[in-house]
Amino acid sequence: MSESPQLPTSNLVPSVIPPEWFIYPITVYSHHTDYAGVVWHGRYIQWLEEARIEFLQARGIDFSKLVAMGCNLPVIDLAIRYHQPLRMGMKAIVKTRLTALEGVRLPIEYEIRSTDDTVLFISGRVVLVAVDMEKGKILRRLPSDVQSALTIVN
Protein backbone atom coordinates (compact mmCIF):
# COMPACT_ATOMS: atom_id res chain seq x y z
CA MET A 1 0.00 0.00 0.00
CA SER A 2 1.47 3.35 -0.99
CA GLU A 3 1.53 6.37 1.27
CA SER A 4 -0.44 9.52 0.52
CA PRO A 5 1.52 12.36 -1.07
CA GLN A 6 3.07 14.66 1.49
CA LEU A 7 1.81 18.06 0.46
CA PRO A 8 3.27 21.19 2.02
CA THR A 9 0.74 23.04 4.15
CA SER A 10 0.28 26.56 5.43
CA ASN A 11 -1.84 28.30 8.03
CA LEU A 12 -5.39 29.24 7.15
CA VAL A 13 -5.04 33.00 7.22
CA PRO A 14 -7.57 35.26 5.51
CA SER A 15 -5.88 36.86 2.53
CA VAL A 16 -6.40 40.10 0.72
CA ILE A 17 -6.00 39.68 -3.01
CA PRO A 18 -5.14 42.60 -5.28
CA PRO A 19 -8.19 43.83 -7.19
CA GLU A 20 -6.39 43.96 -10.55
CA TRP A 21 -7.75 41.79 -13.29
CA PHE A 22 -5.60 39.33 -15.22
CA ILE A 23 -6.28 39.80 -18.95
CA TYR A 24 -6.47 36.84 -21.37
CA PRO A 25 -7.22 37.73 -25.01
CA ILE A 26 -9.46 35.53 -27.16
CA THR A 27 -10.58 35.42 -30.77
CA VAL A 28 -13.84 33.79 -31.85
CA TYR A 29 -13.24 31.26 -34.63
CA SER A 30 -15.85 29.38 -36.62
CA HIS A 31 -15.41 26.19 -34.56
CA HIS A 32 -16.48 28.15 -31.43
CA THR A 33 -19.88 29.00 -32.92
CA ASP A 34 -23.19 27.44 -33.86
CA TYR A 35 -24.64 27.50 -37.39
CA ALA A 36 -25.70 31.16 -36.90
CA GLY A 37 -22.18 32.32 -36.04
CA VAL A 38 -22.96 32.85 -32.33
CA VAL A 39 -20.58 31.40 -29.74
CA TRP A 40 -21.86 28.12 -28.29
CA HIS A 41 -22.62 28.60 -24.57
CA GLY A 42 -20.23 25.85 -23.40
CA ARG A 43 -17.28 27.48 -25.13
CA TYR A 44 -17.36 30.32 -22.60
CA ILE A 45 -16.58 27.80 -19.84
CA GLN A 46 -13.54 26.59 -21.79
CA TRP A 47 -12.28 30.17 -22.13
CA LEU A 48 -12.77 30.72 -18.40
CA GLU A 49 -10.70 27.61 -17.66
CA GLU A 50 -7.93 28.67 -20.06
CA ALA A 51 -7.84 32.12 -18.45
CA ARG A 52 -7.82 30.60 -14.95
CA ILE A 53 -4.84 28.35 -15.76
CA GLU A 54 -2.94 31.29 -17.28
CA PHE A 55 -3.85 33.47 -14.28
CA LEU A 56 -2.52 30.87 -11.83
CA GLN A 57 0.60 30.39 -13.98
CA ALA A 58 1.22 34.16 -13.90
CA ARG A 59 1.02 33.97 -10.08
CA GLY A 60 3.66 31.22 -10.07
CA ILE A 61 1.28 28.28 -9.67
CA ASP A 62 2.05 25.58 -12.24
CA PHE A 63 -1.03 23.37 -12.36
CA SER A 64 0.89 20.39 -13.76
CA LYS A 65 3.31 20.55 -10.81
CA LEU A 66 0.40 20.63 -8.37
CA VAL A 67 -1.02 17.52 -9.99
CA ALA A 68 2.40 15.82 -9.84
CA MET A 69 2.44 16.60 -6.09
CA GLY A 70 -0.95 14.92 -5.72
CA CYS A 71 -3.04 18.07 -5.39
CA ASN A 72 -5.94 19.00 -7.62
CA LEU A 73 -8.05 22.17 -7.73
CA PRO A 74 -11.43 21.02 -9.09
CA VAL A 75 -14.33 23.37 -9.70
CA ILE A 76 -17.00 22.88 -7.03
CA ASP A 77 -19.26 25.78 -8.02
CA LEU A 78 -19.84 27.52 -11.34
CA ALA A 79 -22.15 30.37 -12.28
CA ILE A 80 -22.34 32.28 -15.56
CA ARG A 81 -24.56 35.12 -16.65
CA TYR A 82 -24.82 35.76 -20.37
CA HIS A 83 -25.22 39.47 -21.19
CA GLN A 84 -24.44 39.73 -24.92
CA PRO A 85 -23.45 37.08 -27.47
CA LEU A 86 -20.00 36.91 -28.99
CA ARG A 87 -19.97 36.24 -32.73
CA MET A 88 -17.59 34.70 -35.21
CA GLY A 89 -14.58 36.92 -35.93
CA MET A 90 -14.86 39.02 -32.78
CA LYS A 91 -11.97 39.60 -30.41
CA ALA A 92 -12.48 39.93 -26.67
CA ILE A 93 -10.69 39.69 -23.34
CA VAL A 94 -11.31 37.35 -20.44
CA LYS A 95 -10.77 39.26 -17.20
CA THR A 96 -9.91 37.01 -14.25
CA ARG A 97 -9.32 37.75 -10.58
CA LEU A 98 -9.27 35.92 -7.30
CA THR A 99 -11.38 37.33 -4.51
CA ALA A 100 -10.41 36.76 -0.86
CA LEU A 101 -9.38 33.18 -0.10
CA GLU A 102 -11.96 31.20 1.86
CA GLY A 103 -9.84 28.61 3.68
CA VAL A 104 -8.98 26.03 1.00
CA ARG A 105 -11.54 27.48 -1.41
CA LEU A 106 -10.42 29.78 -4.20
CA PRO A 107 -13.29 31.94 -5.51
CA ILE A 108 -12.48 33.36 -8.95
CA GLU A 109 -14.49 36.03 -10.76
CA TYR A 110 -14.59 36.51 -14.52
CA GLU A 111 -15.81 38.92 -17.12
CA ILE A 112 -15.56 38.50 -20.86
CA ARG A 113 -15.54 41.97 -22.38
CA SER A 114 -14.83 43.73 -25.64
CA THR A 115 -11.17 44.60 -26.16
CA ASP A 116 -11.95 48.26 -25.39
CA ASP A 117 -13.62 47.12 -22.13
CA THR A 118 -16.95 48.80 -22.98
CA VAL A 119 -19.18 45.77 -23.69
CA LEU A 120 -19.81 43.00 -21.15
CA PHE A 121 -20.52 39.65 -22.82
CA ILE A 122 -20.54 37.38 -19.76
CA SER A 123 -19.86 37.56 -16.06
CA GLY A 124 -19.07 34.48 -14.05
CA ARG A 125 -17.65 32.93 -10.94
CA VAL A 126 -16.10 29.59 -10.07
CA VAL A 127 -14.96 28.19 -6.76
CA LEU A 128 -12.03 25.78 -6.67
CA VAL A 129 -11.08 23.62 -3.71
CA ALA A 130 -7.77 21.90 -2.94
CA VAL A 131 -8.12 18.10 -2.99
CA ASP A 132 -5.67 15.29 -2.17
CA MET A 133 -5.89 13.26 -5.38
CA GLU A 134 -4.95 9.93 -3.78
CA LYS A 135 -7.37 10.14 -0.87
CA GLY A 136 -10.05 12.03 -2.76
CA LYS A 137 -10.47 14.28 0.26
CA ILE A 138 -10.48 18.06 0.61
CA LEU A 139 -7.20 19.28 2.08
CA ARG A 140 -7.29 21.09 5.40
CA ARG A 141 -4.75 23.62 4.15
CA LEU A 142 -3.63 24.92 0.79
CA PRO A 143 -0.21 23.74 -0.34
CA SER A 144 2.26 26.36 0.93
CA ASP A 145 3.43 27.42 -2.54
CA VAL A 146 -0.19 28.05 -3.56
CA GLN A 147 -0.89 29.96 -0.35
CA SER A 148 2.21 32.13 -0.72
CA ALA A 149 1.55 32.82 -4.41
CA LEU A 150 -1.96 34.02 -3.61
CA THR A 151 -1.36 35.85 -0.33
CA ILE A 152 -0.52 39.53 -0.31
CA VAL A 153 1.75 40.63 2.50
CA ASN A 154 0.97 44.18 3.59
TrEMBL record:
It holds the Pfam family 4HBT_2. GO terms for molecular function: fatty acyl-CoA hydrolase activity. It comes from the Bacteria. InterPro entries: 4-hydroxybenzoyl-CoA_TE, HotDog_dom_sf, YbgC/YbaW. Keywords: Hydrolase. Coiled coil: none annotated. Its EC number is 3.1.2.-. Belongs to the 4-hydroxybenzoyl-CoA thioesterase family. This is Thioesterase family protein. It comes from Leptolyngbya boryana CZ1. The lineage of its organism: Bacteria, Bacillati, Cyanobacteriota, Cyanophyceae, Leptolyngbyales.
